[in-house]
Amino acid sequence: VEKVEEQLAGLRIARRCVPSEEPAYLLDIHTSRAAQPGSSRLVAVSCSNESIRVYDRETLRFLREYRGRGGVLSGVRFAHTCDGVVFSACSQGTVNCWDVRSATQKPVQVFSGYPSNVFISFDVSCSDLIVCAGTEKVEKDTFLVFWDARGITDCASATKEPLGVYSESHNDDITKICFHPNEPNLVVSGSTDGLVNVFDINKDNEDDALISTCNSDSSVSSLGWSGEDYKQVYCVTHDEGFCWWDMAQLDTEEPITLLHVLDVRESVCTENHGLHYLVGGLYHEKAGKLFLIGGTSTGDIHLISCGTDGLSLVGTLCGGHSATVRSFCWSPTDESLLTGGEDAQLLLWKPGAVERSLTKKASLKISSSVQKRVRVHNTSLKSRKK
């Protein structure tokens, strides 16, 4: 574990993408898995200007861009079994799916929701069989909507209707959805109602499907799976709290809460740098260790180690970003890290790398209209605690 912590702290900038002509916040990052032999890996980034940008994973060379057909795009995911297929949820009530190997700008598949749906979160199961999206609350309703995703690569612009919905388990915006990395029937959802719900979607109805409800006591901004066989669930809240639960303890007398930190900024000592926000979690499979990624408004990135006895700072990555970091993607194959921020920069960090690019980092001021459309880290949410 110590070696892994040293390695993380030793990450250095290997590549920096050429700045786009239209600067935008980089809100989510995902990489393809190179599922097909000989295919080069790709990076997709969802941006605050309602676009998805695709880059070459190694060189960060810009390849293409997709726009939603009206509506804000949120989240980005590659299919697991096909490198060229990328998904994003849209506020217009669809999940769009593009094929980066084709020349068309149109989605090859559109998963349509119900008329009032505004999708702000989604994920794709590890088998690529199911797509699930979470809605904003409209009147009293908030939904998890499910679709059958089979045949995504050979359907030209077909529109798919939902398989069904879960409507009883959350009562506010569903901000995050994450399928289990290895078990396609398990999915966890988080909401501004503070609840983190684990479902087994193989069950016949929503009541039976709900395996566990955990309360974060705050608004959920990010979540994921961790631990041996990924039996643990963790979440980060909009007011920089952290919760960590062990689903393996559900049928035992042991408590399922491994750690609950109300404000990580107060519990992690970062000397002069400070910790202003959390971005999310990273489970390092080789080390069997969960880490959090956070940072400062000036672009420093903090790596934080999680243990049942508390949190500790592993290291700080400096000199890359000049503003808040919004997104990251960890690659276990070459132990590298991609980060994106409010400075419109996409960076690739590798152990002991030396930056080859000569582009100067620009401190980009992006118009305030972007901030109105983007969820900001908010400290006023404490008043909403259950």
UniProtKB/TrEMBL annotation:
Task: Name the PANTHER family on file.
Answer: WD REPEAT-CONTAINING PROTEIN 89 (PTHR22889)
Q: Does the keyword Repeat apply?
A: yes
Q: Which residues cross the membrane?
A: none
Q: Which SMART domains match?
A: WD40
Per UniProt, the keywords (alphabetical) are:
Repeat, WD repeat
Q: What is this protein called?
A: WD repeat-containing protein 89
Q: Does the keyword Repeat apply?
A: yes
Query: What is the taxonomic lineage of the source species?
Result: Eukaryota, Metazoa, Chordata, Craniata, Vertebrata
Q: What gene does this protein come from?
A: Wdr89
Spans of WD repeats, please give.
167-209, 318-350
